[in-house]
């Protein structure tokens, strides 16, 4: 069994209502029972639920996060938007940024960088998503896409202790397809190397894998020693699936 800290992060996307804290409560009970396992559990939930869930759950084992924010740090004329300070006040400790579902809506690397700056200014943690589309993969562009996403959205001035990278190939999200383990190992190694080269640091960044992670396929990922955890979408909406993912990872 690995002795390193492993992240299990749920990304609820547009899911959940006020009663759904019960899902996280069950996971909290499991987290308590399994506190000998060196893991960190975070749930990135809809912004409308953060404050309420924080009051309901009150767990030292589970942190809450948001799934996006506006880049602007003050109040302003941005209809429908929520900024990092607002999310912090609601109780978020993490913000997912650069998720491919938001890139698809037009988020650019440059815009994501502004959001990262705003989130770091609040001393919140960033879960920074990168990944190639199927077309880019077929055209053998995976490495160049990842390099550009890292280069254009991160900066050597950033506090890298507050940034977790999540490699999420767009074609694997919600599709039940996962990368070949060898391919994934190489990509994780590449991201770590590229990061260290670009920002002239010796520090290894934390890197998660995301995309169709479920209780059945999680054990295949356990062999990737340089992976720091998982960003889990669909399977994080069920307490049983989420708990089984953790259990099977450590089996
Ligand atoms: P999935 O989503 O686990 O449902 O594939 C992962 C994500 O989008 O973060």
Q: Can you put this structure into words, describing what you see?
A:
The protein is α/β, with parallel strands linked by helices. Helices cover 39% and strands 16% of the residues. It is built from ten helices and eight strands. The chain has helices at residues 21-33, 47-57, 84-90, 100-103, 109-121, 134-138, 142-153, 181-198, 218-221, 239-250, and strands at residues 6-11, 39-44, 62-66, 94-97, 125-130, 163-167, 206-210, 229-232. The chain has an eight-stranded parallel β-barrel, surrounded by five helices. α1 (21-33) packs parallel to α10 (239-250), α5 packs across α7 and α7 (142-153) packs parallel to α8 (181-198). It starts with 5 loop residues before the first strand and ends with a helix. Bound molecules: 2-phosphoglycolic acid. The site of 2-phosphoglycolic acid (PGA) has 13 residues, from β8.
Short key terms for the protein model shown above:
251 residues; alpha/beta; eight-stranded parallel beta barrel; 10 helices; 16% strand; binds 2-phosphoglycolic acid
What profile does the largest beta sheet have? 8 strands, parallel, barrel
- Helix residue percentage: 25-40%
The Cα radius of gyration reads 17 Å
Strand order in the sheet with the most strands:
1-2-3-4-5-6-7-8
Bound molecules: 2-phosphoglycolic acid
Count of separate DSSP helical elements: 10
Shape: globular
Q: What is the structure about, briefly put?
A:
The chain has 251 residues and is α/β, with parallel strands linked by helices.
List the helices and strands and how they pair.
Elements: E1 6-11, H1 21-33, E2 39-44, H2 47-57, E3 62-66, H3 84-90, E4 94-97, H4 100-103, H5 109-121, E5 125-130, H6 134-138, H7 142-153, E6 163-167, H8 181-198, E7 206-210, H9 218-221, E8 229-232, H10 239-250
Parallel strand pairs: 1-2, 1-8, 2-3, 3-4, 4-5, 5-6, 6-7, 7-8
The structure holds 2-phosphoglycolic acid (PGA).
The site of 2-phosphoglycolic acid (PGA) has 13 residues, from strand 8.
């Amino acid at each position: 069994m690995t002795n390193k800290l492993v992240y299990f992060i749920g990304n609820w996307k547009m899911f959940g209502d006020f009663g759904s804290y019960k899902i996280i409560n069950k996971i909290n009970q499991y987290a308590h029972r399994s506190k000998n396992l060196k893991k960190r559990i975070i749930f990135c939930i809809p912004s409308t639920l953060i404050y309420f869930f924080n009051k309901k759950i009150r767990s030292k084992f589970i942190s809450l996060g948001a799934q996006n924010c506006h880049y602007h740090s003050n109040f302003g004329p941005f209809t429908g938007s929520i900024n990092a300070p607002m999310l912090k006040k609601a109780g978020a400790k993490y913000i997912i940024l650069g998720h491919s579902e938001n890139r698809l809506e037009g988020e650019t690397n440059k815009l994501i960088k502004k959001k990262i700056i705003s989130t770091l200014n609040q001393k919140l943690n960033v879960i920074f998503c990168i990944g190639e589309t199927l077309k880019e993969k077929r055209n053998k562009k995976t490495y160049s896409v990842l390099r550009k996403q890292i280069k254009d959205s991160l900066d050597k001035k950033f506090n890298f202790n507050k940034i977790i990278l999540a490699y999420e190939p767009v074609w694997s999200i919600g599709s039940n397809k996962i990368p070949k383990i060898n391919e994934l190992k190489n990509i994780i190694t590449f991201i770590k190397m590229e990061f260290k080269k670009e920002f002239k640091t010796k520090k290894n960044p934390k890197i998660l894998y995301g995309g169709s992670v479920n209780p059945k396929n999680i054990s295949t990922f356990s062999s990737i020693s340089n992976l720091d955890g998982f960003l889990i979408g669909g399977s994080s909406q069920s307490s049983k699936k989420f708990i089984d993912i953790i259990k099977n990872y450590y089996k």
